């Protein structure tokens, strides 16, 4: 009988750093999208293809590639997909025209699978009582990556041009690709179950019936991620509108408030280990609802917006962590495919949130956006409260 070798604290933190680098790649474009459009001579509507196709390719890649984690070594797949990301980043960095650039961005999304393999890999190598803490640590790494990408890209592009952002990002991916084999230890064997690839993909759907809670958790996270995307897109439009008069740099600096999540998320994960993920999630959802309800009355000034933004960023990642905890304790050979269901639903929610945030602001202004966000958050809270029944 083999003995499980647990990850060292150093390895846990290095996996979180890897998550930061590989997740950041999708967010560099956000603050510099106008500058990239001007460089390639395309309209702002057409440059929207870059993030849109990236997200669609990400959802497709998760569905087609992530289930392989239940058949093949998570370590082997993580290294392979990180290499694919590195190549895609190189294409974006060297692209001389818009088509190669958007092609690189689309391929980047398709190969962004590594951050979703890391929690499953770690869950097999940590003590059960530390699952929430380590899952939260990796989530905090991803949050850090988003934060650095959104704030740092704008600053670097302002000083050195947008292309320098992608040179740095490509260099970081080369470093990750070279060091990942040392961070993730050997010892994980491929599954002995010889399912064909189509059978492996199709096996995802019966799991939804067998493990209904993963569907609920995925819908909850879809609402959580969707309102996050809707909020920041609408907030960017609102702050740069004539009524507010701020520049895009202000939006980037405001994104720095997400730093609170880096500190709070591991602690919230540890707390969820003690009281249970379903109870913790319902509490986080209610706190988030309270914060989101403040956006309308406090939306007149930038400084007043800081309070609801702080609350939303404080507990939002905790909802993701606790939702993952509801199925990461199940059989190891199922976890990657269950994660597939969960993450695909999350990005569907992100797509809906992208449309909701911009459409609500365009039609009804900031007040309409706040109403839409409150409706999403209320629905999330009700579902989280219902989800506590699964833990009884």
> What is the CATH first-level class name of the largest domain?
Mainly Alpha
What CATH architecture label of the largest domain applies?
Up-down Bundle
Instruction: State the helix count.
Output: 17
- Look at the structure and give the mean pLDDT: 83
Portion of residues in beta strands equals: under 5%
The CATH homologous superfamily of the largest domain corresponds to MFS general substrate transporter like domains
**CA distance, first residue to last residue:** 33 Å
Largest sheet: none
Give the CATH topology of the largest domain. Answer: Growth Hormone, Chain: A
Low-confidence stretches: none
How would the global form be characterised?
A: globular
Order of helices and strands: HHHHHHHHHHHHHHHHH
Number of strands: 0
Q: How much is the radius of gyration in Å? A: 20 Å
Helix content: over 70%
Secondary structure class reads mainly alpha
Number of domains: 2
Could you explain the architecture of this structure?
- With 392 residues, the chain is mainly alpha-helical.
- The chain contains 17 helices and no strands.
- It has two domains: 7-192, Growth Hormone, Chain: A (Up-down Bundle); 203-392, Up-down Bundle (Growth Hormone, Chain: A), CATH 1.20.1250.
- Helix content is 77%, strand content 0%.
- Helix 8 runs antiparallel to helix 13 (248-254) and helix 15 (277-292) packs across helix 17.
- It is globular and about 60 Å long.
- The protein starts with 8 loop residues before the first helix and ends in a 5-residue tail after the last helix.
- The relative contact order is 0.14.
- The model has no long low-confidence stretch (mean pLDDT 83).
